[in-house]
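2024-03-11 09:14:02 INFO receiving multi-entity request
2024-03-11 09:14:02 INFO entity count = two
2024-03-11 09:14:03 INFO echoing inputs for audit
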Amino acid sequence: MHQFSIQPLFGSEGWSIAGYNIAFTNSTLWMAIAAVTLAFFVAGGMKRQLVPGRWQMAVESFTGFIDGMLAANVGPGGKKYVPYIFSLFMFILFANFLGLLPLGVIGLHAFTFTSHFSATGVLAVLSFAIVLIVGFAKHKLHFFSLFVPHGTPVIMIPLIFCVELISFLVRPFSLGLRLFVAMMAGHVLLEVLSSFVISSGNAGIGLFAIAGLPSFILMVGICALELLVAGIQAYVFALLTCVYLNDAENLH
Amino acid sequence: MPQIAQLAATYSSQIFWMLIFFGFTFFVVGRGMVPKVMDTVAQRDKQIADDLAAAERARAQADAEEEAWRTRENANRAEAQALIAEARAQAAAVTTERLATAQVAIDATLAEAETRISQARRSAAAEIEDVAADATREIVSRIAGLTLDDGAVRSAVKENLVHG
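2024-03-11 09:21:47 INFO inference complete, emitting structure
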């Protein structure tokens, strides 16, 4: 579990604003790395050539992917959310992938800040706040009709309204927790398997052959799975935000 | 689980820096760079669509020009055929006319020649009659010593000449 612990860096544990601690931690460092890497990646695709090179093509395929996702889920009104969804998707994607880098080989330790709900929660609340702001700005109090699906019998409206309201209010939690749980579970799984490999190796060659080697082979497969999960979780976060934005933009 | 164990000590730092760096990502990358990238894509799509439309227009124009050329060509060919037919008909008419004229001339010449021949034959026959009559009278006078009437000799000669 040490890989998830947050430590202040550069002697910044005393930094604070209005009594709140804002230490520059290892988590913060990896947020910065993700943001800067992402900015570098997208900047590399801004050559604006008529015939794109490989890098420009890669960046354009990502923006096209986000654009297509918004067009499919929100419709023509979704175009204006491309910057936000793109930032969200790519920031989470880069965070997930950077956290999986095998930097332990050269003595450094990657930190996956998306495995902290205090970080994913910020993004989830941000998405939820945008949905609320857009919804109420666009539909005023009519936005509450979102909680009463079409064709609900009048007698059922109070009950359905409560159920829908609860499911709506759960969204930021499910959004933030899903990402945090998926990233943490993967890292814990890899850690457990690698501890099998190391402790069985220390215990003797026989035990290593029985437990260590299969665990190691399994780890290789799980690593590939984790890369997949890193992409999928970023996609799910962005996709669900699109779906929620669709509710705010078009109601039902 | 450090996420919970350290929550009280780190939540403010996590939230603060998350907002800072996600804000940086959103404003610098999302708002600053992504629209330009998408603009490039849109520009390229537009150019491709324009080029395709231009090519389509050019093709339609070429088709129209070819059609016009074909119409013109067909008209020209029909005109030429008409000209040829007319010339042929004219030539045939001229030939027929000339042939008719020649035929008439030949017929006239022939008729004239036949008349001449029959005239010549008649005069020749008359001369033969004269000569024969003279010869007969001479013979008769010499052999029989008779002086015959000219008309009698002539009719006898004519009878003999006709009946052989």
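2024-03-11 09:21:48 INFO post-check: The first strand of chain A starts at residue 16 and ends at 17.
2024-03-11 09:21:48 INFO post-check: The helical segments of chain A are 26-44, 54-73, 82-99, 117-139, 157-203, 205-250.
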